[in-house]
Specification:
The chain is α/β, with parallel strands linked by helices. It contains eleven helices and twelve strands. It has two domains: about 190 residues, Bordetella uptake gene, domain 1 (D-Maltodextrin-Binding Protein, domain 2); about 120 residues, D-Maltodextrin-Binding Protein, domain 2 (3-Layer(aba) Sandwich), CATH 3.40.190. The relative contact order is 0.23.
């Protein structure tokens, strides 16, 4: 069992432990598994789902695995179609890939929360964020950035992926921690990281938030300068402090996890949790994570459920302050660790 701090606001970092079932090599393989990906084939979460399916097959953790796609509405359609349990998990299991966009999407749609509509199983991986500016920017440090926000939150346009997604929510959380009026933050949402970067280079935004690893080539080439990263510790290859170092008590990762259908029996839930533990302990999965730059942030069972309840509450509060609860279209937000 290990513990990992994850996504904390000014109240402090919430610690949560993983489960102790991992490594049970004697556990029986599952029967037929369906992984539901809330994305079109080849897009976002679908890539993560298919990587996961390949690991399940390669490790012999299931006799057959398929991926079922439900694109659109940041996973709300997939969530609605997934709610009811169907038969024994050991014979025909179903898993839903999830992340922060689905949590936010359910809140914005005024639907049942993820924790109410499913059986939370495990958080698997995450993607740290970075705040970057053009190399020639007058914002030389995060302190400069924070000073502008505190003086006038609406003075500076910050970009990232689409409104209500991970980057926007993180910007709201940073604003909260800096004590500014989040309602006044000026944010420009784009369909992807490439479009946000183009806006940065053309001077349409002063800074952008996004996947830290996706910025590494431009950082190395000297085209952008990182001001801060959202991880607990500094990231190799990015010469920038963490938010915590700059007295912003916030740690944030764009996470991906697995859910089971609502109404799972205790036995089915234990079978599913044991499978999640074996996935995280799998050398194949660890190699896939390393190859894709995904950070393993494993948390399972009751610990994950409690963390998800708290995280949903925090996300709802930020979305409300940003004025997004009833105002935005949610058909094409990005996804968690599947981004490249």
């Amino acid at each position: 069992m290990y513990r990992r701090r994850f996504l904390a606001l000014a109240l402090g970092v919430m610690a949560a432990g993983g489960c102790g079932r991992a490594g049970d090599s004697g556990a029986a393989s599952a029967g037929r598994l369906t992984i539901v990906a809330p994305a079109g084939r080849g897009q976002g979460w679908d890539r993560t789902a298919r990587a996961l399916a390949a690991v399940l097959r390669g490790e012999g953790l299931a006799r057959a695995v398929e991926v079922s796609n439900y694109p659109g509405n940041v996973g709300v359609a997939a969530l609605s179609a997934f709610t009811a349990a169907r038969g024994a998990f050991a014979r025909e299991g179903r898993l839903l890939l999830t992340g922060m966009p689905m949590v936010a999407g359910a809140e914005i749609a005024n639907a049942d929360s993820v924790t109410e509509a499913t059986t939370p199983l495990a958080r698997l991986v995450g993607d740290w964020a970075a705040l970057v500016v053009p190399a020639h920017s007058l914002l030389r440090s995060f302190e400069d950035f924070a000073a502008v926000l505190r003086r006038n939150p609406a003075e500076m346009m910050v970009g990232g992926r689409l409104e209500g997604g991970s980057d926007h929510v993180l910007y709201g959380m940073i604003g909260r921690c800096l004590g500014v009026d989040v309602r006044l933050l000026d944010y420009a949402g784009y369909s992807g990281g490439a479009e946000a970067a183009e806006a940065l280079y053309e001077g349409r935004v002063a800074a952008i938030l996004g996947s830290a690893r996706s910025f590494m080539p431009d950082i190395a080439a000297g085209r952008v300068r990182p001001l801060v990263v959202s991880s607990a510790e500094r990231i190799e290859g990015i010469d920038a402090p963490t938010l915590m170092e700059r007295e912003v008590r916030l740690e944030y990762t764009d996470w991906c996890g697995l859910l089971g259908p609502r109404g799972m029996s205790a036995g089915d839930r234990e079978e599913a949790l044991a499978l999640c533990d074996r996935i995280d302990a799998s050398p194949r999965w660890q190699a896939v994570c390393a190859a894709n730059g995904w950070n393993r942030v494993y948390l399972s069972g009751d610990d994950f459920r409690q963390w998800l309840v708290t995280e949903t509450r925090r996300t709802r509060g930020v979305l409300n302050e940003l004025g997004l609860m009833r105002s935005i279209a949610t058909s094409c937000w990005g996804s968690c660790a599947g981004r490249h």
